């Protein structure tokens, strides 16, 4: 009797189901199509049934991203061990600091060698010069050096700055780091559409965090409101109750009372919102991986503006598909937006340039292929 080919089992470990849907669902779907057996350990909210209907096995995780309770954290680690026992993965692929840390512990306990750890930006801790950040960074580096050990461990980073930081810290051997720029964008879903002529909406899409530059965006709207009543500023997304940097809903609603500023909340029709916009802006103040909001905006043919920080500068080519602005320089941010408002042809040209950049470097197919090649490095041995 001829034996069939064994399906490789991939266990994703991601803190929240909504983040998996936004950043890793396409990878999971295309991996199932390629013959992989896929499971997801995550905290589920409203997307569990949809994920299961796509052929992904779901495993509940009690993880609380904001928790510092040792009892709760111990249970979360036990959940990882239980998931590994139940699914028996050939490879574990975890995303973000806490899932990476806890999956590293779980893999050590269960002797799982094939481990992919993905960090979508080093964030505040590695970009801030505050004493608090430096202390946390010192502790994190000690922990990370331990968890990144192993010949069959691979660390996926999204931008060259993060690669340089971790290489210079000697946390992991250089030959174990893989640079994969972002989570990719579905260019068929986020298709190119000509810019509107009668309106000029500037869109910021993200979690509602102060560090995403939303307050700077609001101040920018105030400056431009004195120059033109035609330019409308829109923020899309929801507060993150597990993040201490989250902007309270009542503050967002208060800001939305301004004539040219609108808080639209969480929306499922981002393609429509982007197609109705003329410009996408993300003045995040700390290093990102590669922001999906900028990728999606560029894919739709919109100029993109961001602060000149790691991650953003990987997708924004200054003067070509948008503008990079000195961090926290709100006046320069307003100038860039007003410049594009006054020059429709420049908006069109930058939008077209951005679409070409996406098609060449950032499509879902490109990112999925690169990620699966990293898996195969470990699985074929």
Which descriptors would you attach to this protein?
six-stranded parallel beta sheet, Rossmann fold, 381 residues, 16 helices, alpha/beta, seven-stranded parallel beta sheet, single chain, globular, 2 domains
- Total domain count: 2
SSE pattern: EHHEHEHEHEHHEHEEHEHEHEHEHEHHH
Spatial arrangement of strands, main beta sheet: 3-2-1-4-5-6-7
CATH architecture designation of the largest domain: 3-Layer(aba) Sandwich
Structural class per helix/strand content? alpha/beta
CATH class of the largest domain: Alpha Beta
SSE arrangement:
Elements: E1 9-16, H1 17-23, H2 25-33, E2 37-43, H3 48-53, E3 57-60, H4 70-87, E4 91-95, H5 97-110, E5 115-119, H6 123-127, H7 131-147, E6 153-157, H8 160-168, E7 177-179, E8 200-205, H9 214-225, E9 231-236, H10 249-255, E10 261-263, H11 270-275, E11 279-282, H12 292-299, E12 304-307, H13 312-315, E13 322-325, H14 330-342, H15 344-361, H16 364-379
Helix pairs in contact: 2-16, 4-5, 9-14
Describe what this molecule looks like in 3D.
It is a single chain. By secondary structure, this protein is of the alpha/beta class. It has 2 domains: 9-184 and 363-379, Rossmann fold, CATH 3.40.50.2000; 200-361, Rossmann fold (3-Layer(aba) Sandwich), CATH 3.40.50. It contains 16 helices and 13 strands. The protein has a 7-stranded parallel β-sheet with strand order 3-2-1-4-5-6-7, with helices on both faces. A 6-stranded parallel β-sheet has the order 10-9-8-11-12-13, with helices on both faces. The model has no long low-confidence stretch (mean pLDDT 92).
């Amino acid at each position: 009797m001829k034996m069939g080919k064994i399906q490789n089992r991939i266990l994703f470990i991601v803190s929240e189901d909504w983040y998996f849907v936004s950043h890793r669902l396409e990878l999971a779907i295309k991996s199932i199509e390629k013959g992989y057996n896929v499971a997801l350990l995550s905290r589920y909210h409203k997307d569990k049934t949809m994920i299961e209907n796509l052929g992904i096995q779901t495993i509940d995780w009690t993880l609380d991203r904001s928790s510092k309770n040792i009892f709760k954290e111990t249970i979360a680690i036990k959940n990882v061990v239980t998931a590994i026992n139940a699914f028996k993965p050939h490879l574990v692929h975890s995303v973000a600091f806490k899932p990476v840390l806890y999956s590293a512990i779980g893999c050590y306990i269960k002797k799982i060698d094939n481990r992919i750890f993905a960090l979508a930006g080093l964030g505040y801790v590695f970009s801030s010069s505050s004493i608090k950040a430096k202390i946390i960074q010192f502790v994190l580096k000690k922990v990370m050096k331990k968890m990144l050990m192993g010949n069959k461990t691979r660390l996926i980073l999204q931008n060259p700055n993060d690669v340089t930081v971790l290489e210079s810290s000697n946390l992991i051997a250089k030959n174990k780091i893989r640079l994969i720029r972002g989570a990719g964008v579905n260019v068929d879903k986020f298709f190119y559409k000509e810019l509107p002529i009668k309106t000029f909406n500037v869109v910021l899409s993200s979690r509602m965090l102060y560090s995403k530059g939303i307050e700077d965006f609001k101040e920018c709207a105030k400056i431009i409101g004195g120059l033109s009543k035609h330019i409308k500023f829109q923020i899309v997304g929801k507060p993150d109750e597990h993040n201490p940097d989250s902007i309270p809903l009542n503050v967002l609603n208060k800001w939305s009372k301004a004539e040219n500023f609108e808080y639209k909340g969480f929306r499922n029709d981002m393609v429509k919102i982007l197609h109705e916009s003329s410009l996408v802006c993300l003045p995040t103040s700390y290093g990102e991986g590669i922001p999906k909001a900028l990728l999606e905006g560029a894919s739709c043919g919109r100029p993109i503006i961001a602060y000149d920080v790691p991650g953003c500068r990987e997708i924004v080519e200054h003067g070509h598909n948008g503008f990079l602005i000195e961090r926290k320089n709100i006046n320069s941010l307003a100038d860039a937006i007003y410049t594009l408002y006054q020059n429709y042809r420049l908006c069109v040209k930058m939008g077209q340039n951005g679409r070409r950049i996406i098609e060449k470097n950032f499509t879902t197919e490109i990112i999925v292929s690169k990620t699966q090649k990293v898996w195969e490095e470990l699985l074929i041995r």
